[in-house]
Amino acid sequence: MFNKNPRRNFRRRKNESSDEDENDKLGGGDAGKETEEADSKADMARGGISNECDCSDADEPSASALQSRDINQQSKSSTLSFLDEKDLKKSNKDVRVQSDSDSDGSAEDIPPDSDEGSSSTRSSSSGSSKAQRDAAVIIPDARKIRAAKEKRRQARAQQDYISLDSPHTPGSGQEEGPSSGEQNSDNELDDHERRIEFAPKPKTLRERMTEKMGSDSDESFSDSQEEEDQQMWEEQQIGKGVKRHQKEWQAPRPARQKKMDIPETLPPVSVDVIKKRIIAKLDSLREVHRAREAELRRMQLDMEMAKSSLESLENHTTEEQLRFYRTMNVFSRNLLECLSEKMALINSVELDVHSLYIDQAEVLFSQRREALQEESSQIQKLTYNTDSHSNGDTAGDSNPAWQSLSEEEIGCVPCDLEPTAEQQAELQSKRDDLLKKAQEVFADVQTDFWDVKKILSRFDEWRISFQDSYSNAYIGLCIPKLLAPLIRHQLIGWNPLQAGEDFEALPWYSAVERFCHGQGYEETENMDMTTLPTIIEKTILSKVQGFVELVWDPFSAQQSTTLTTLCKRIQEDYSVFYGEQSKPVKAFVEAVIQRLRSAVDNDVFVPLYPKKFLEHKRSPQFQFQNKQFWSAVKLLGNMALWDGLIPEHILKELMLEKLLGRYLMITVLNESDSKHTIQKCKKIADCFPKSWFIDLNTGSSLPQLQNFSKHLLQIAHALFKDTNGSSSTRKLLSDVLFVLKNIKAHDSIRSITEKCHCEDLLEALQ
Q1: Are 572 and 645 in contact (CB under 8 A)?
Q2: pLDDT score recorded for residue 725
Q3: Whether residue 476 has pLDDT greater than 50
Q4: Of 78, 75, 69, the residue nearest 87 (C-alpha)
């Protein structure tokens, strides 16, 4: 639509000047050659200075072209131009355009038919070009280049220089006419004809030579500057060192004079001070000596172990070790297969035997609860009978069992609940049948795979022959779990609640004990020392825990005594209850606590009746309450047997806060007879563990026994007021003082002795 016709002016050589050019070439051949040689030399010389070289200018040199080259030479050689490459190319392009317009103007002024003018003009232009080339050949040395740089730097500091960014500023003396502007606009390419350069042009030989010469001059200048800076820095450092050295020589003089000052008086030195210092030094030396001795013992032990390992390696060849390991591998696999197969039978027989004891215990528990409920209901009816003609006493007199209760039997503790002879015979018959069945479990198995002694002999051989591999395999940790089925098989008929039966009398115990503490292992460090305690924790206590949860009767003195005796022996021999307890031990202790708590909450029953029924000692109300009271006291004594086995604060909670405070103290406070009250309090005090009062240094007893001690103090004061110091009263006062002395109620004892004047009784007790 809008067609723009580019306007271009081409420099054309007229046809008439072609003949003169040919004559000049033919006539001046020699001169042309000399001129070309001179031109080539000048070009080579200018290659290190000029920035660009146009091929058209080399073929047709003119004064303006030479002038532009001189300008480029000065700007590049002196490195005074700080323009970028685009601005430099633009300035060079402007100079070339101006020179072309000048040459075209001079050619138009000379007519085409004037040969002389053309020749004279040609000769004058050639002469001026030669003169300018000779002048351009001169190359400044490095000193001049450095001076020019310094001058340029000073001019920049004073802002007294011409900026190259604005070549058309006023006063520059370079103003282009309208002809040059039109020619520049004519020579410029259109937007669609311009070529975009995406990569820099390759540098010519002259450009590379120019950059190298410029970099060499800059490096020489920078090297000289760095040498000067280095020399100045060295001089400064040397000066600092000399000054410091002088100060060091001058500073210590007054210090030496101070050190030479001797004080007039010295601190006093006594023999005790010297002795203390010598003792301290001796103690430190002894400590070092002990450490060295311990290190020496460790080194000797390491040497012995190394020697034993060396001897074992020398005595046993690789083939023997391989043969032994293969044999042990086969034996272990066969043993595990055998135990896995027999485990179901062992569990079945063990469960059947355990069920016999559970059934018998449940029968006894149910009989006691039924008898207690029946008797309580009957007495309740007698006590609260609506018949006005009957007050309950006549019913009590009609019962021969209640009438036969004597005075001595009032404070008697009830006996344990035992099974009848028929029940015991039936239980024993079933137990014998199950034990025979248990013996047939390993009837089809060789003794090497069920006899604990023979099994441990295999591992003992491994421990003696190849101790390193034995310890690395952690056999000591595997043996308790490996022997657990065999030990449980031998413990099937063992009842921990029955006296006379001991698990240490079984064959497995002697075999394990010899393996852990046998001959030759007492003095040395044995890696299987914990095997037997681990078996006790994981196997024995687990079986005992089953009896505690389902078979044990806390009201039975015989069962409680047997069970606590077994636990205390295990504690003394194997230390399983000391320190940090394992999981099986914690589970066992928790089972005991829950069973005692259940007995206090569910099985203890001490009824309360009107005082008129309790005044008659042969009344059924008094006898039933008295029986239940002493049953609770019996449970209190059985619970005290667990002192040292279960936590003390839990035992105090069960005995003092629950059993004593909830049941026993109510009965004691409602007792009208002082003699019976003191008898009951004395029996209650005898149940308390002695360890509770060992470290009790306070004036009063335990906080849970405050009401108990106050009631005894009131009874003592009442006795002294009523009887006025008779012999029976002094006997009762002596019993009260004995009870208070056992519970460490010193304040109550002091009050009684001061008010009742019974110091002689207290001395007799001490």
Answers
A1: no
A2: 58
A3: yes
A4: 75
Distances from the Cα of 510 to the Cα of 96, 269, 445, 454, 547, angstroms: 121, 68, 22, 12, 24
- The tokens describing 351, both together, are 């469960």
Packing angle, helices 421-439 and 318-383, rounded to 10:
160
First to last CA, the chain: 139
pLDDT of residue 483: 94
pLDDT of residue 543: 93
The predicted model gives 456-473 an average pLDDT of 88
Taking only the tens place, the pLDDT of each residue in 724-745 is 556 777 788 888 888 888 888 7
Least confident span in 357-366, 385-394, 581-590, 626-635: 385-394
Instruction: Say what the pLDDT of residue 764 is.
Output: 53
- Gap between the Cα atoms of 573 and 518, Å rounded: 17
Q: Which residue has the higher pLDDT, 392 or 383?
A: 383
**Spatial distance between the Cα atoms of 482 and 528, rounded to a whole number of angstroms:** 14
- pLDDT, the chain, mean: 74
Report the C-alpha dihedral over residues 241, 242, 244, 246, rounded to 10 degrees. Answer: 160
Q: How far apart are CA 569 and CA 645, in angstroms?
A: 11
- Structure-block tokens of residue 717: 């004061």
Question: Which H or E element spans position 533?
Answer: helix 531-535
Backbone phi and psi for residue 643, each to the nearest 5 degrees, phi listed first: -65, 130
| Dist CA 364 CA 559 (whole Å) | 14
Please give the biggest Cα pair distance in the chain: 184
Residue type, 219: E
User: What are the distances in angstroms from CA 384 to CA 12, 623, 756?
Assistant: 154, 17, 43
* Cβ neighbours around 185 below 10 Å, total: 9
Give the per-residue pLDDT at 756.
66
- 663 to each of 411, 496, 660, how far by Cα in Å? 17, 31, 6
* Model pTM score: 0.58
Helix (H, G, I), strand (E, B) or coil at 646: strand
Residue 152 has pLDDT above 60, yes or no: yes
Q: Say if residue 361's pLDDT is above 80.
A: yes
Buried/exposed 666-698: b ≥16 CB within 10 Å, e otherwise: ebbeebeebeebbbbbbbbbebbbeebbeeeee
Under 8 Å between Cβ of 368 and 374:
no
For residue 122, count other CB atoms closer than 10 A to its CB. 15
Collect all residues with Cβ–Cβ distance below 8 Å to 742 and sequence separation of at least 6: 685, 686, 688, 693
Beta strand spans in 226-313 (E): none
- Collapsing DSSP to helix, strand or coil, 610 comes out as coil
User: Using CA atoms, how far apart are residues 565 and 560, in angstroms rounded to an integer?
Assistant: 8
Name the nearest CA neighbour of 467 among 527, 425, 524. 527
pLDDT at 286: 94
The token pair that represents 44 in the structure block: 């080579």
Say if residue 167's pLDDT is above 50. Answer: no
Q: Which residues pair with 646 in a beta bridge?
A: 643
